[in-house]
Structure formats: structure tokens, C-alpha cells
Amino acid sequence: MDFSLSPELRELQGRTRRFIAEQVIPMERDPRQSAHGPSEELRRELVQRARAAGLLTPHASRDMGGLGLTHIEKAVVFEEAGYSWLGPTAMNIHAPDEGNIHLMEEVATHAQKERWLRPQVEGKTRSCFAMTEPSPGAGADPSMLATTATRDGDDYLINGVKWFITGAEGADYVIIMARMEDGSATMFLSDMDRPEIVLERSMDAMDSCFTGGHGVLRFTNLRVPASDVLGEVGKGFRYAQVRLAPARLTHCMRWLGQARRAHETALEYTRKRQAFGKPLAEHEGVGFMLADNDMDLHTARLNIWHTAWLLDQGEKGNYESSRAKVICSEAEWRVVDRSVQMLGGQGVTGETPVMRIFSDMRAFRIYDGPSEVHRWSMARKLVHMAEKAHAAAEASA
Amino acid sequence: MDFSLSPELRELQGRTRRFIAEQVIPMERDPRQSAHGPSEELRRELVQRARAAGLLTPHASRDMGGLGLTHIEKAVVFEEAGYSWLGPTAMNIHAPDEGNIHLMEEVATHAQKERWLRPQVEGKTRSCFAMTEPSPGAGADPSMLATTATRDGDDYLINGVKWFITGAEGADYVIIMARMEDGSATMFLSDMDRPEIVLERSMDAMDSCFTGGHGVLRFTNLRVPASDVLGEVGKGFRYAQVRLAPARLTHCMRWLGQARRAHETALEYTRKRQAFGKPLAEHEGVGFMLADNDMDLHTARLNIWHTAWLLDQGEKGNYESSRAKVICSEAEWRVVDRSVQMLGGQGVTGETPVMRIFSDMRAFRIYDGPSEVHRWSMARKLVHMAEKAHAAAEASA
Amino acid sequence: MDFSLSPELRELQGRTRRFIAEQVIPMERDPRQSAHGPSEELRRELVQRARAAGLLTPHASRDMGGLGLTHIEKAVVFEEAGYSWLGPTAMNIHAPDEGNIHLMEEVATHAQKERWLRPQVEGKTRSCFAMTEPSPGAGADPSMLATTATRDGDDYLINGVKWFITGAEGADYVIIMARMEDGSATMFLSDMDRPEIVLERSMDAMDSCFTGGHGVLRFTNLRVPASDVLGEVGKGFRYAQVRLAPARLTHCMRWLGQARRAHETALEYTRKRQAFGKPLAEHEGVGFMLADNDMDLHTARLNIWHTAWLLDQGEKGNYESSRAKVICSEAEWRVVDRSVQMLGGQGVTGETPVMRIFSDMRAFRIYDGPSEVHRWSMARKLVHMAEKAHAAAEASA
Amino acid sequence: MDFSLSPELRELQGRTRRFIAEQVIPMERDPRQSAHGPSEELRRELVQRARAAGLLTPHASRDMGGLGLTHIEKAVVFEEAGYSWLGPTAMNIHAPDEGNIHLMEEVATHAQKERWLRPQVEGKTRSCFAMTEPSPGAGADPSMLATTATRDGDDYLINGVKWFITGAEGADYVIIMARMEDGSATMFLSDMDRPEIVLERSMDAMDSCFTGGHGVLRFTNLRVPASDVLGEVGKGFRYAQVRLAPARLTHCMRWLGQARRAHETALEYTRKRQAFGKPLAEHEGVGFMLADNDMDLHTARLNIWHTAWLLDQGEKGNYESSRAKVICSEAEWRVVDRSVQMLGGQGVTGETPVMRIFSDMRAFRIYDGPSEVHRWSMARKLVHMAEKAHAAAEASA
């Protein structure tokens, strides 16, 4: 058992922390941000800064130009990056690109990587991931997938509507999940500048930290050659899992940084602001919230580290990443909600970054599986494991 | 003990409900709304509709042109009005005007009423209430009041900065709380179109339901004649209580309407949306949230009714309105948070009104006294009452 | 709307409060109590005191010798009785007798009433209610009823095992729920001193406030004549509802008294005990718990009153009594848990009555339907009502 | 970062698990247990079994005859021991002996160790720790220490009353905390069989897992020679910290075992018990509780491991052990409360071990500092660290 970080990792952590403090936070009030996220121009400027600092796309393999970070290393670095809502954009580790890069590294062909992945790792392009659909299609229940891919000669024709597609506006390529005639699912790659792909609208969302916002995409007879299938035909659901377990965890990491920012902002404020004869922080009611914040932050971090370590050991970690996702999304949310409360009027206005963090983070308890879906899948696994253990005990008796 | 509503009140409830459904909700997507609230033009159009429906400023006295509602009647009618975020604006019962109208009725002179109150009750003008100040001034602790009023002949000169002043932009008159040289506080009335009053900026806030947003006001040697003192000199803190107890309660009422809206939106959605083979609402995890919502809504309503009844009996109800404020602000918030969760992606985007309600309501746990300040004052009162009871028991022994 | 109590009810409330304080609480340390409850001898002595005070079996009809209390009157009186764990025993309003008396009044024949009910109302006898069964029989799901009643001439033969039968040891008669050959259920009355009824054991339970504890009963070819059927054959489930809705509510009332006792004990202690330079109650962390207790007590009381009023209007109140049961059992539990915490070492030892209350009350979140079963039935009802409203709106459109 | 256990530790874990399952759990229904704990005879029999299994007093140094476990090793082994409430008694790692052994190893002289510690490590004797006092003495606030030690020649005379003294009845020696004339505190060692030490009574407590229960001790002119001072005069508060930080953590470890037992009992039950057409565990409402239990157990374990690792690095860990104590005591309590709820009637009766665990564990949120005291000391530390960081940043700027 060892909870220490290597000197190299501590150096990288410190470097990332300074980069965020000195190069990214000063950009947070940059006007090139709208309710739908930072502009592409702002994104490119931030990426340029990360490149100069040697911190661009650090999770990509060294072959592709990244730093080849392990999961534990990502845990440490992504938390630091998340301290500013612009940090993940700068370092090219924001959703959905971070997860897409991971998936492409795992599954794409050499040609696909050269065409789509390499420029993305270089921060030149962006991607989106088209899985979620409006009712009655695939939402929390992926088996309801309604978008279809039908074989047409050597090609596939894709038809359907997707929504909540993060980063859709301005994305260069898209990974599309579609249902085959046999009921299985396949992932397809496509450039976005195709007339058969229409961005019907960008949705108004509570968050505004994702470049490209959240869009509604319509695919009408989009023709995709067999060479642009991502991985094998029919393995879409399996790849979704390959993408999802680590992607869930990197959400936990980045939002941990945001939650820590909220907490530290509240701590600074309550140390200084007087009420009823003493600093707010010296009121037990406020002090208890500070203590609860620290407990939640620490708990989230330990869960991330443990799950990251498991993934580094080669475990799939489906159960553990579900668990970490529920624990972190709820703990980090409590931290931000308490921070708003401690800040009072400052917490619900643009006077501090916390209002923004509050709005940006609420969806985290919903995406990548709402807490309820994860709790349910965890329960089934617990029962299943108990049944197996029971059967094994009976067999050996 | 009787929980029934009179036939007249049920009629008024039904009429308000229909007015909101037919005249107000269709305006919710009107573009004349910004991040700082509905425009004055939109407000006037809504007021015109309420006037036509006989529902304008119903809490004002009949003398002034209102319906002279009791507190219980307000409880029923304001909940209905609150069902749409534009409802209180339409019916002229939004904060801070609703509380200001109440305070003016209680304290203002005949001349003051004719000059400022009557046009306000008619929906022609708006007001604001300037009490809260930036650090180190008056926040949750009103005793830290830093804005000063100094005697100058028959007049007073007011100097200071106020912030979080709801409705400031475009308000016609303002009630200013200022500290006297002897440490007491006084309320002053002033028109807003005075060069000595500067709206320094409108603050970016999480909510966007208040016409005029939240502003920062600077008073520089604002000269107020003695005839524009509201009530008596030195009684500012007492009047703040007169205003606050019922004002807190009307917040509870209006937000109850919003919370019910969120719940009913989630109920409709989960009844219809399928996942994992059945409607969402038939999943226990979702059903439990629906049940919890109903329990919280019911609890909030009972607390409002009970406190309103007490006020109708002539009780001051300071303790009880504190209690109702904490119970309602927290119960209603839980309802809205659960509704977001049940709605999933729909809850965190503009697809339903719930995202808007979520953002609008968060500040309710903070303004008119954060939960923590109310809990603390309740605790002191409980101890004080126990001490009195103990002393009385000893005396009679 | 009226929250006031009539002068007569206030007098009865005061009289009950004094009776409990002066006649019952001094008996709490009486040694004639075991882990399985007060002894029959102690019960009779307490009953004698209540009889002398004119407070015995007050919910029974005046015909039967009670005070014929309405539900609202019960709400007020039972809360006072519950202030001591011996109070309900003294006043003959403890479970299960209180509910059995109600059911007998509603359903029993004149002969049955004279034989079983009248002596019970007079406090001379006790009863039990045999519904719950060990796995795989009827628990939270009554449809799993396994005990059978088979016709044999003019009689019925009852066979089966029941457990968690409160008050079984020493009960004079029993109401037995059994399954008929057609799948319906019937209630049967029987004296307990029959060789075909065996009390297999008394269960060790966390609570110790019920005379007769909780027993396991075995019925072996128990012969019951048709004249001892309670109500009509086949209507057992319906009568269970008749019994249950008000019985649930009287639990809420009695436990409210216990929760208030715990709170007041903690309030007294924290007012006096010093730590870190001031009384405990002047620490915000403790004061917040006092305030939360008061909010929970008040919320529980309002929910009880509202539901009692509904029942007094002739409503069945199934939904509302479910709701009140969940709200009260959880709110009252929180009060007691917080009181333990405020009392520290005193809370987990016999130095105060609170340890006892804590152990006695835990089961309340489970019996008469665990919170989970109530939440689920509430959810189904909410969905059902929404569907009906929707259909009605469609029909009228 | 490494979360793996060494092969040796895994072997020891497995051996302890088997010992508890095979040698200890079968003793749980042994009648030699009362409301005040296991009898001395039962304790000796259990100790004999642990000795035979090579698992007696494993945390003591090898010199003294233990296994010299590190904190991390204790974390793993003590969790296994805690799986049965008799496990810690058997392995001689129960409170307060476990903490006393640790303190004696750190502070006692060679002669003191040979006299008191060695037989205790061998399981032949027991000890108690006399710090807590009745009001107005030392409770959560140790500075209120009222027991005095006055110099009398070469000896000290100790006078005072202590309560909640775990293990007092039958203990062989006692460590007494007393106030010196200069306001400092000193620890004294004394045999218990002295006429100047009177066990006034054993307290009735919610728990019943500690041999010797909880007693009230009166010291009247107890004469203690200077050679029986534990450590240095005047360092009592410092030694209390030496004892407390690890002692808090071992409580977390042992109760984690109990919480896991409760969870696994509920899991077994809900896997098998049917209701409403399927096993309880397949109801989402129950499944969510299982998932929440696993999250709480995992969180508690990670916090224990992390803090134990820190202590193994030589850190004092005062802050971290406070944090772990709050997190674990609350998380483990939630697990047990949920397990009771899932078990229904089985959870509140002696049908399963869970009722017992529930009653035994409640005090853990109170002793070794109630959650409220820890939250407050954590808050002060967070503020203090922020102030130091701020000052350092200013200094370097």
C-alpha cells in the first residue's frame, strides 16, 4: 500500500498547477465565451498556450504526440487542469474529445488514426460522439438505439437523429453509434462537413464550458464506406464500454478540480467576511460546511485514485468506475452547493467563479449514466457476486 | 381545526390557475427577456393581462385598488401565480414590490401613499429596496449597516453603496435603509431618477426572473427631506422586521408554485419516457423521487398555511416565518433538484421550464436570511423559551 | 382554514399532559418491565390510574365507555400520551389494541363486541393481531398470506404460523388473518387460551414498550365457528385497510410524543452543560440540531393534523395516511437520533429516557409498511392520478 | 501509488477471516453475555482460541509478544476481527485495551511494562482508561478536567469521579487522567483492587460488546507513587493525543467489520426473500440501498487505509484521523441503518446479528469526540492552513 506520488508526477502536478494559475485563469473573463461555450478562436489560443507549456493532450500516447499518462497520472494532472473551466479545453482533455482520443487509440486503424486522431491530438481539430437520441431512442438505456445503419454495397447508409451531442457545432469529425439490421450496434467515423449531416440546432444548456455546446444532429442517408467503420462491425456496445469506464473517471477528475476551486473560493471568503462579530468561518455552521467539503473532496480523490490504479493494473473496472462516478458526482456537487451557500449573494452572482461552476456541474450527476442507473447496475452486480460466492461455497462443501 | 378553503377562495384559486395557464405561460418564450429578467415592455403587457382578469396586485388593500387578501388567501393565490415565473410579474406580486407595497401600506403617510404607492399598486411603476451592502457592510447581519444618513437642516444626506438590489434597473422609487449618527437605522423614500443615485452596474445572477435584475447602487449626498422619511426616524430595523416576516412567507408561496411546476413536468415526462422496458415512473428509483416530491410539496404548503393563519390571527410570527422559510426553501429546492434528475438531459437544457426554475430558485436558500442564520435565531429562541418556561415553573413551585 | 384547538380539546390536552407528568412518568423506572415490555401487573396498575383520571380508552365510542374522540382529538391527546412510553399502555391506546378496538367498533357484531370488545375497552383484557408471517409468507407484501382457513361443516380450521405478533404473550383474544380456498382473505376472532394456539417463543426485539412483546404463534387445526368470523368472509384485505389507515396515523401521534420528549430532554441538557466555554446549546452546531428538531416536530404534527382532519371528513385517506406515515416516521426518527447526538454519552446510556426512545422507535420506519413500500404505492397513485387528469383533459378537449 | 496488499498480509487477512468464521461466530450465542458485555470467563475462552490461532494481541510489539503490526496491517486485520462483535475481545484488540497497550508501549517505563503491559498483552489482564467525567467535568472538552492530583511527599493523591469508563468492572489496572495544581494534566497508573477506587455502578448502555461494560469510578485519596506516573508529569494532554489518533482509527477498522457484516446479512436476506413477485434485492428501492452500502463501506475503507499509511510514514495524523473518524463513523452507521431497513422485522429483532450491531454502534458517532467536535477542529485547521498559505504567498511576493 502506498499513497505517495513519484517525484516526476509531483513535478508535473506543480507545472500544471502553475500553468492553470498563470496562463488559463487570467483568460476566464475573456469575452469570446457564450452560453454555448468558448469560441473556437479562444480554444485555439488556449491550446497554443498548453502546447508551449508542454501540456497539450497529455493522455495521448507518446507515439501520437502525447505524454502517455497512466490513469493515476491522469488523476493528478486532470484535477489540476479542472481547476479552471478553461483548463481542459486548453490541454485538449475535455469531453468528448478526451474519451474519443482514448477510444481511437484503442480501436482505430492506422489509416484512421493518421486521418482523424493525429490532428486532434495536435489540438487542430475537434470531434463529437453521437450516441444519445431523443425519445423514444437511446438515453440512459442504450439498448433503445434508433439510428440505423443499413448495408448498401460496400457502404453503410446511416439515418437518425441524435441530441445532447457535446461539441457538435464546429466539430471536425464524429463517431456515430447506429443499430444494424441484426440488432447489434456499430460505430462509424465521418467528417462533419457532409451535407447529409445537419446541425438542426444548438440546445440551451445549464452548462457553458464545452466548446461547441450541445447540438441536435440529423443524419439523412449518410453514406459511410466500410473502411470508416470504427473497429469491428457489431461491436458498438462493447466499444462504448471501452470508452465509457475511463471517460467516466476523467469526468470525476476534472470536476474534482472545479469542486476544489469552489471550496477554496468559499474558504477565502469566509476567512475574511465578518458577520455577527467574527469571520464567517469562525461560525460553527460555516465551519462545518468547510469540514464537510474537505471530507467530500478527499473521498472523491481517494475513489478516483483507487479506480485509476485498478485500470492501470489492466482491470476493466466497470463496476468500480460506476461506483466512483456516483460517489464523485454527488460528493463534488455537495461541495459546490455548500460553497454557494457559504458565499451567500456572492455565490449566486458572477462575483466569483462559483456560480459558473454550479451551473456547469449539475449535469454531471446525469450524463455518462445518471446516478440511478449506476446504482441499479451496481446492485445487480452485488447480487450476482453474492450468488457466485454462494454457489462456490456450496460446491466446495 | 379546519383545512378547507372557502368557496370564494377556491373560485379565486381556479381563476388564477386558468389565468396563468392561458395568459401567462404562453408568454414564457417571449424574447423580451434577458439574463437580467423580463423587459419593462413585457412586464407592462403582462400587467395589462392581469388587470383585465381582475387579478392585479391582489394583496393590496381594497382602498388602494387591490383585493385585500388575507395571508391565507395569499398563500393559495400566490402559489398559483408562481406556477409560471412570469406570473408574479403579471400580477404585481413579485419581490421586492410585493413586500414594499405591504410595508408602505403599514407605515407610509397618506401623501407618501398617493405619491408612490398608488401608481405602484396600479402596476404603472416599480420600486426597489436598498438594504444589502458589499463587505464589510450589511449582509446576513443587518447590524453591519454602513450607509449613513446625516442630518443637514430639515433634510438628510445619504451616502453609501448597496448591492444585490433587486429590480434596481428601471425602478421608479427606492426605500433606503441607512444608519443614523446614534447607531439606529431609518428608512428613506426617494425617486430613482436623481443624479445622486447611480446604478453602477447590473450584476450577473443565476436567476433571471426579476424585472430590473440585481443592481449595485451608489448614493452620493442624496438629499432627502424629512417628509420622505418612511415611518419614524430610528425605527428602520423594526420596519425591516415588519416587511420581512410576511415577505419571507410570500417567497415560500411563489416558489411553491415553481416547485410544483417542476414536479408536474417531471411527472409528465417520466409517465411517458420508456427505459429498460417500462416507463421511467414505473422504476422504483424514479417513483421514490416522485413520492418524495409530493411529500416535500405538501410539507411546504402546510407550513405556509399554518404560518399564514398565525399572521392572520395578528401574531408577528417572526419565529414561525423563519421556520417556514427554512423548511420551504429547502423542501422546494429538493423538489426542483429531483425533478432535474428525473428529466435527465431534458432537465439541464431549455427543453423544459425546469432548468430555468432550477437556476432561478437556488438563491432562495440565501436571501431574506440564509438557512444558517434562521437556524441560529431559531435555536436561540428555543433556548430562551425553555429558560422562560423553566423560570416560570420554578416561580410557581 | 383554522389551526386552533377548541377550548374543550385544550382542556383535555392539558389534563392528559398533567396525567402523564404526574401519574405515568414516575412509574418509568418501575422494575416490573423487562426486555419484552411492561408486565401485566404494571399494566393494570397504570390502567387503574388512567381510569381514575377519566382518560381510559378515550378513542372508543361513548357507547362502549370511551370518550368517542375524533381523529383530530386523538391527534392532540395521543401525542400527549406518547410523551411517556408507558402513557399509551396506561390509557389503553397502545398498538395493537388501539387499532383492534377501532376495527371491532367498525366491523364486529353486537355479540362479538359484548364478548371481546367491552372488557378490552374497560382495560381488563388485551388482544393481538395475527397477520405477519415468516418467509415465504406475508410480510410487507400481504398478498403472500400463507395461513389457511378451510371450511369444515359450519366451522373453519385455521393452520399456519405468524410472527412479530405484538402483545401475543398474555393476550386474551386474537384477530387472525387467513387465506380462503378461493385466494381471498378472512379475519377470524378467537380466544387465546386454546390448545390449538401455541406461543412458540417471544422474540428479542429492539423495542421494549409493548406489553406482551412480540411473539411467534402457531395455529394447528384451530376450529373457529362461523359466528366468530369478523365481518364478512373474503373481506380480510379490505378490513386490513380499514384498520390500517387510522392505525398508521395513531402511531405517528404517539411517537410524536416520544420524539418531543427526546428533543426536550436534549434541550434541557444542552442549555446547562458547558463545553468550550459556553453552554452546548450556544454552539451553532448544537443549536442547528435543536432548530432542525423543532422543524421536524412541527412538520410531523402538521401532517398528522391534516390527515386526521381528512379522516374526520369521512375520507378514506389511504394515500394521505401513507404519506403521513413516511413523513412522521422519518422526521421523528431524525429528532431522536439528533437528540442522542446532542446528549453525547448521556444519549447512549440509561441516564436519560432518550436511549430507550431510540431503541423503541427504530422499528416504526418498518412496521405498518416500510417507508419503501409506502413510497412505491404513493408513486403509483401519483402516476395514476396524472393519467386520469390527462384523460379527463383529453376528453373535455 | 499502490493499493495492493502484500502476500503476507493477504495470508494474515485470510487466516483472521477463517478464525472469526470458525472459532468466534459460533460463540456469539454463548449465554455468558449480559447487557454489560461478555463475561470474563467467556473472554478468557475466546482469548485462548486466538492464542492457539497465533492471532492474540497482534498489534503489540514482537518484544512484548505481539505481531508488531503496522497501521496498514492493523487496518486489514482489525476489519476482519470486527466482523464478529466477539472478535476484538478474542484477539485482545478491543477498546480501551488496544489503545492502552499502544500508549504503554510508547510511554511506559520498562518496569511499568513488565508489571502491567506484559500480562495484558498475554491476554491475562484487562485495563481501563479513566478520562471522561460527569458534568461539569471533562467530556467532549478535555480542558474541563476536574479530577485532581495533589503532591503529597513523593506520592500523589488523586480525587475525583469518572464515568463512561469502558471495561471498568473487572479491569486489573487503570490509567487515570488528573489535573495538577498548575492546570496541566498527568496520567497515573494504578491497580484497580485498591479500596480508594470504588466502582459506584455499571451504567446501562445501548451497547453490550465491551467486557466490563461502562462504569462510574470514584477515586478518594488514591495514593500513587511517583514511579507510577505514566510518562512525564504535566504531559497528560499530549499523551492523550498520542493515544487518541491511532485509537480513533482502530475504532474505524473494527466497526467497518461490523458494518460489512450487517451489509452482507442484508444482502443474503434480500437475495432470497420474495415480495411483490420477485426477490427484495431486485426492487430498485432495495438495490439502491445495497449500492449505497457498498459505496459507504468502500469509502470508509479507503479513508482508513490512507490515514493508516500516513501514520506508518511517521505523521501524527491528528487532522486526518479526525477526518477518518467522522467519515467512517457516519458511513458505517448509514450502512447499518440501511441494513436494518432492508431486513425489516428481522432487522429489529434478534433473528439476525444486525439488531445487535445497530445498538452497539450508535455510540461510535459520539465517543473519541462527537462528529461535531471533530468537524469544528477540522474547520479551524482548514482556516489556519489557508492563513499560513496566504501569509507564505504574501511573503514570497
UniProtKB/TrEMBL annotation, chains A, B, C, D:
Keywords: FAD, Flavoprotein, Oxidoreductase
Protein name: Acyl-CoA dehydrogenase family protein
UniProt cross-references to PANTHER family, sorted A to Z: ACYL-COA DEHYDROGENASE FAMILY MEMBER 11 (PTHR48083:SF13), MEDIUM-CHAIN SPECIFIC ACYL-COA DEHYDROGENASE, MITOCHONDRIAL-RELATED (PTHR48083)
Lineage of origin: Bacteria, Pseudomonadati, Pseudomonadota, Betaproteobacteria, Burkholderiales
Keyword match Cell wall biogenesis/degradation: no
Family: Belongs to the acyl-CoA dehydrogenase family.
Pfam families the UniProt entry points to: Acyl-CoA_dh_1, Acyl-CoA_dh_M, Acyl-CoA_dh_N
Gene Ontology annotations for the cellular component aspect, listed alphabetically: cytoplasm
Organism in which the protein naturally occurs: Diaphorobacter aerolatus
Single annotated GO MF: flavin adenine dinucleotide binding
